[in-house]
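Narrative of activities, Objective 1.

The group set out to show that a structural description can be obtained from nothing but a protein's sequence at a throughput compatible with the screening campaign. Below is one input-output pair from the validation batch, recorded exactly as produced.
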Amino acid sequence: MTDPNDSIDRHHMRTALRLAERGLGQVAPNPAVGCILVKDDHVVGRGWTQPGGRPHAEVVALTQAGAMAGGSTAYVTFEPCSHTGKTGPCAEALIKAGVKRVVSAVEDPDERVSGRGHQMLTDAGIEVSIGLLANEATYLNAGFILTRKANRPLVTIKMATSLDGKIATTTGDSKWITGRISRRYSHMLRASNDAIMVGIGTALVDDPELTCRIPGLEDRSPVRVIADTRLRLPLTSKLVQTAAAAPLWILTIPGNDKDRVKAFQDLGVTVLEVEPDESGLPNLDLGLALLAERGITRILAEGGSHLLATLIKDELADRLMWFRANKIIGGDGIPVLQSIGLKQLDDAPEIRLLEERRLGEDLLESYFLRN
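Output recorded for this entry:
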């Protein structure tokens, strides 16, 4: 028999997930969590994790509900924390507020929690249901989960190309391949990630700012990360000159000129050194682990062709956002990817289409790159 509460529970959990999504790109190193408090069929409190990771969603919702939280059902997209960090345990706050039931989407993989929050609630006599819309909640916080299970952030590759996979003509002309709506959507992607990453080639050619330039969301610009083996990024570049306003991190290898390193640091740039890979470039596996240790959970990799190819070849990319314009450039155009060393079709990376949508005249295809 179908549980009559199931459709109601699903409705409220979906609402909580939409609230949680508001925190993406703003709450690292914490997960983005949403919480809805429902009493007598009325929503009495709602909240999501606030910028910087606190207060947590449950505390925001409980504060809004006040005395009405007593006897309510809490719908939480992630297991309430059970440890004391910069704030007290959310599980304890739910208990003190008199919540009678908690519907939780997924267990927190953080070893400090990992089931303890649910157990704390159960021990206090609160009815706990776990697993509602777990796939959706896991997808939303895949970045946080990866930092705990694989010691690296979620990596999303963004490509903007012609229909035949080119990013520029043979002369280098590339503005603009995709349309205004796609470019605006790209800035929304930046706002929902903790960091944006490009290689030094892209930084030298485009002299980008890599900020979020949507009115009202300028303060949601992510950390800019540049993979730059020999510190070739000019000190006069837009990236360096805006380092005080938007964090700039350079991922490089040991052994660069110390005066050059200090010059970057004096301008507010963080220089991160990792051992090189077999080609002499910064080892991206080690680099991503270092970024995770510094609190980054979600990275948007925008180019260039060498960086994206390496992420795919080394199986470090998780998702692909492919913006395709209704243009054909031809074989002499510049490809979006360099070689990934593929010799047999059977060895090609398996990708799975998640969604496709129209953005004006462009097509956006979203894929899973890892099963």
